[in-house]
Backbone:
C-alpha cells in the first residue's frame, strides 16, 4: 500500500515537473521565435532603407530611358514644353547615349542633339515633383472653370526676375543685367504664353544650377552653355570634365589644337600637353577675375575640384557644376553661423573665422577662389614631378614660389598685395608660354636646315 502511494505520489510529482518543464521550454521557444522574427524584420527593413537611399539613385540606361519617356508623355499631353521637346519626342533627333550619374535625385545623361554631344540634366526626376506656379492656379480661379486667360509677357518677366534673384540670394532691388536682357527677349516675341510654357519655365527656375548657368552664360564664357530645354530637363554643352587622378587634370592629349603655323615649316604646330598647361592656367586666372569683378556681386566657388571644371578646344576653362557657387549676399548668410572654433566655419572650400566672444562665424570669407585654385590645381601642375627636367630652371622655380605664395594668401590681406601676386602669376605664365614657343621654333628651324642640306 505504501509502495503504491509513493508510486502514485512519485508519478504525480513527476507529471508536475514535466508540465513545469514543458511550460518553461514553451516559453523559451516563443521567446526564440519572437527574437528571430524581430531580427528578420529589422534586417528586411534595413535592406529596404539601403535600397531606397543608395540603390534608388543607381544610374541605369533603362531607368533613364523611362524618365525621358515620361517627359515625352507629359509633352504629348500638353503638360510641359520646350525647344528640345519636338526633337526629343517626335522627330527623334535627340539620341540617348548613356546615363552619366544620379545624385540626390539629380539626373544627368549624355545624348546627341542633331549630332552635337549634349548633357541632359534635371534636379528632380519628375515634372510633377516641382512646385507649381501659383499664378496658374490663380488664373484658373479668376477665369472660372475652363478659363483660358493667359498671362502677359510682363507678368512672366516680373515673376521670373523675382525667382532668379531669390535663387541667387540677391536683393529685389539689385541691378542685375540678365533679367532685363531676358525680359527684352520675351517682349520681342510679342505674344502671351501658354500654361505649359509657364509651368516649364517655373520648373527650370527652381533649379539653382540652371539659373546660374542661364544668368552667367550671357556675361562670361567661363560657364557651360545651356542649349535648350524640355520641361524640367535642360541640355548643356558636353565637355570632358577634369579628373583628380590625371596628372594634367584634363585629358589634354585628346585635344587637337593648331593655334598657329610655324614660320619654319608649312605644317601647323600642334601643342603638347605640357604646352597647354600654362595656357589653361591663364584661363583659370581670367575666370577668377570675371567672377570677382564683372558682376554686381563677387561669385564664390565653394567646391573647387577637377570634376567641376572642363576645357573647350580653345583651352577656355569652363565651370560645369555650379551647385556650390554663391554670390556675395548668399555667401554671407551661409558663413554667418554659430561656432566654437574656426573648424565650425568651414563650408567646403569657403572658409571664415570664428569670433570666440560672440561664438559666431564671420560673414566675410577668409580665403578666395584664386587661393584655393592655386592650392588644389596649380600646385600639382607646377610641381617638380610634373615639370620634370625643367623643374630646376629659374623661371620654373620662380613660378613654383609664386604658386606657393598664392596658395597661402589670405583674402583679408591688402588688395595691392593680392593684385601683385595675381599679376606675377600671369607674367610668369606668359613667359613660360613664350619660352616654350621659342624652343619649338628653334627645333623647327633645325629640322628645316637638316632637311635642306639633305636634298
Residues:
Amino acid at each position: 500500500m505504501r509502495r503504491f502511494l509513493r508510486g502514485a505520489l512519485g508519478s504525480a510529482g513527476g507529471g508536475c515537473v514535466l508540465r513545469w518543464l514543458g511550460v518553461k521550454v514553451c516559453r523559451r521557444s516563443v521567446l526564440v521565435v519572437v527574437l528571430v522574427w524581430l531580427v528578420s524584420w529589422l534586417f528586411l527593413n534595413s535592406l529596404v532603407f539601403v535600397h531606397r537611399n543608395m540603390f534608388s539613385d543607381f544610374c541605369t540606361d533603362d531607368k533613364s530611358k523611362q524618365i525621358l519617356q515620361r517627359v515625352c508623355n507629359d509633352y504629348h499631353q500638353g503638360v510641359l514644353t520646350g525647344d528640345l521637346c519636338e526633337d526629343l519626342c517626335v522627330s527623334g533627333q535627340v539620341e540617348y547615349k548613356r546615363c552619366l550619374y544620379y545624385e540626390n535625385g539629380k539626373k544627368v545623361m549624355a545624348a546627341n542633339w542633331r549630332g552635337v554631344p549634349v548633357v541632359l540634366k534635371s534636379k528632380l526626376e519628375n515634372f510633377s515633383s516641382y512646385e507649381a506656379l501659383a499664378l496658374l492656379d490663380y488664373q484658373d480661379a479668376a477665369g472660372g472653370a475652363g478659363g483660358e486667360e493667359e498671362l502677359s509677357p510682363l507678368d512672366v518677366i516680373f515673376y521670373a526676375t523675382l525667382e532668379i534673384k531669390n535663387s541667387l540670394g540677391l536683393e529685389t532691388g539689385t541691378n542685375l543685367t540678365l533679367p532685363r536682357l531676358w525680359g527684352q527677349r520675351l517682349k520681342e516675341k510679342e505674344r502671351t504664353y501658354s500654361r505649359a510654357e509657364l509651368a516649364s519655365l517655373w520648373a527650370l527656375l527652381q533649379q539653382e544650377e540652371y539659373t546660374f548657368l542661364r544668368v552667367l552664360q550671357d556675361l562670361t564664357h567661363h560657364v557651360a552653355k545651356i542649349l535648350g530645354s524640355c520641361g524640367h530637363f535642360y541640355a548643356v554643352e558636353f565637355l570632358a570634365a577634369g579628373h583628380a587622378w590625371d596628372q594634367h587634370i584634363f585629358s589634354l592629349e585628346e585635344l587637337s589644337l593648331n593655334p598657329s603655323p610655324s614660320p619654319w615649316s608649312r605644317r601647323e604646330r600642334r601643342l603638347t600637353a605640357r604646352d597647354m598647361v600654362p595656357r589653361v592656367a591663364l584661363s583659370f586666372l581670367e575666370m577668377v577675375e570675371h567672377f570677382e569683378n564683372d558682376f554686381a556681386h563677387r561669385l564664390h566657388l565653394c567646391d573647387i575640384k577637377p570634376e567641376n571644371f572642363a576645357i573647350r578646344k580653345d583651352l577656355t576653362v569652363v565651370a560645369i557644376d555650379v551647385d556650390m557657387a554663391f554670390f556675395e549676399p548668399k555667401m554671407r548668410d551661409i558663413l554667418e553661423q554659430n561656432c566654437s572654433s574656426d573648424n565650425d566655419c568651414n563650408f567646403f572650400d569657403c572658409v571664415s573665422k570664428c569670433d570666440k566672444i560672440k561664438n559666431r562665424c564671420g560673414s566675410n570669407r577668409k580665403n578666395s577662389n584664386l587661393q584655393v585654385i592655386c592650392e588644389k590645381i596649380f600646385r600639382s601642375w607646377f610641381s617638380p614631378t610634373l615639370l620634370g627636367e625643367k623643374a630646376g630652371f629659374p623661371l620654373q622655380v620662380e613660378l613654383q614660389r609664386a604658386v606657393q605664395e598664392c596658395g597661402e594668401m589670405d583674402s583679408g590681406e591688402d588688395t595691392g598685395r593680392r593684385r601683385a601676386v595675381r599679376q606675377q602669376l600671369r607674367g610668369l605664365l606668359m613667359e613660360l608660354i613664350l619660352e616654350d614657343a621659342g624652343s619649338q621654333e628653334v627645333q623647327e628651324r633645325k629640322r628645316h636646315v637638316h632637311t635642306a642640306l639633305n636634298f
